[in-house]
Design brief:
By secondary structure, this protein is of the alpha/beta class. It folds into three domains: 114 residues, no CATH class; 37 residues, no CATH class; 174 residues, Rossmann fold, CATH 3.40.50.410. Helix content is 47%, strand content 12%. The protein has a six-stranded mixed beta sheet. It is flat and about 75 Å long. It starts with a helix and ends with a helix. About 9% of the residues have low confidence.
């Protein structure tokens, strides 16, 4: 529930600490396993005004994986009024009880269409809605085994702790103490192409990068590539996404310029990769593959990156178009060293990308 409150704050709902305490008290007095109880407990305590209601409904549906609460009808209250104020209905009852209100159903249908629409073809209003959807996106980090072991109820026997416990108990081994390694987040490195050919998608890609940094700031690095390499991790750590993108834009000297992927990738590996940033990490390259320089250098550096990284993911916005074939020289040179080749043209594609990174 505290995680849901944080998600609401990212979506623009105040959700102050006193309101969060009231929400926890309300959920504690109700059934936390009942979606309807959780929905109304949060809506009546966390929302400060009418402007928060739509954001709350969108955040509730996104955070709880589309769970649609079905509110019980209060005594003496007309059924139609309850249905109009409730979110999407999960079940279908007899008569009109299981039908969705037209306004809610229309909004859900519009959200679903927007999730699959190409970012480059969106209107200004649709892009504004997309920004709110990015605020609700929380990409999970891939995990890796840790060398450091911690006490655990299961696993290998911790000999020294068991002996110390036996000495404390008078020399009798009354209990075996165990330990095992716990997984730790694996580093994720995002290389975002901000050249002229990628300008329709650069804003969405950087918003995805901001969501990744916001979710795991210590395990995520962000660089922009074009004619030169720019590290924007510090700017991406700003909490507000608009402020983070504005700061990143001010720090990027080659926005909407040309593309020298081979040279920039070599600069990244020489300065950052060999020092450990790319070693054992999941490296995500977001580019359409247009290469102004020679493709031989790009192929050589991609092979070098593949030897250092745990996994290499290439995101090409054009892959989401019907009939697309990776025929450009840059893509032909890079694909042999790529583990996953995914699209990056819509919100649904970014959600799929988050799953690819997590499973890596």
């Amino acid at each position: 529930m505290l995680g849901f409150a944080r998600t609401l704050r990212h979506a623009g709902v105040g959700a102050s600490p006193d309101r969060v305490e009231a929400m926890l008290a309300a959920v504690g007095a109700l059934d936390v396993l009942d979606p309807s109880d959780v929905y109304w407990a949060g809506r009546l305590t966390l929302c400060a005004g009418p402007d928060d209601l739509d954001r709350y409904d969108a955040a509730f549906a996104a955070y709880f994986a589309g769970e649609a609460p079905r509110p019980a009808r209060p005594a003496g209250q007309p059924e139609q009024r309850v249905a109009a104020a409730a979110p999407l209905d999960a079940g279908s009852g007899e008569g009109d009880e299981g039908e969705q209100p037209p306004e809610t159903a229309g909004r859900a249908s519009a959200d679903e269409v927007l999730r699959h629409r190409d970012v480059a073809e969106m209107t200004v209003a649709e892009r504004e809605h997309l920004r709110r959807l990015f605020a609700l996106l929380v990409p999970a980090s891939p995990m890796r085994p840790s060398r450091r072991r911690r006490p655990s109820p299961h696993g290998a026997v911790h000999a020294s702790r068991t002996v110390r416990r036996a000495l404390h108990d008078g020399g009798e081994v009354t209990r075996l103490l165990h330990r095992r390694s716990r997984p730790r987040p694996r580093r994720v490195v995002l290389l975002v192409d901000v050249s002229g050919s990628m300008s329709p998608y650069a804003d969405a890609l950087l918003r995805f990068a901001h969501a990744a940094v916001r979710a795991h700031p210590a395990a995520t690095e962000v660089f922009t590539v074009g004619t030169r390499l720019t590290r924007v991790t510090r700017e991406m750590r700003l909490r507000d996404p608009d402020e983070a993108l504005a700061a990143s834009g001010a720090a990027i000297p080659d926005w909407s310029g040309g593309t020298r992927l081979g040279e920039v990738l070599k600069a990244f590996l020489d300065r950052w990769g060999q020092r450990g940033t790319a070693r054992g990490a999941v490296v995500v390259v977001c580019s359409d593959g247009w290469e102004r320089g020679g493709t031989e250098l790009l192929a050589e550096q991609m092979a070098r990156l593949r030897r250092l990284a745990h996994a290499v993911v290439w995101v090409n916005p054009h892959k989401g178009r019907t009939g697309y074939q990776p025929l450009t020289g840059g893509m032909q040179a890079a694909l042999p060293a790529v583990d996953s080749f995914v699209a990056g043209h819509s919100m649904a594609a970014f959600e799929e990308l988050a799953g690819v990174i997590e499973r890596a």
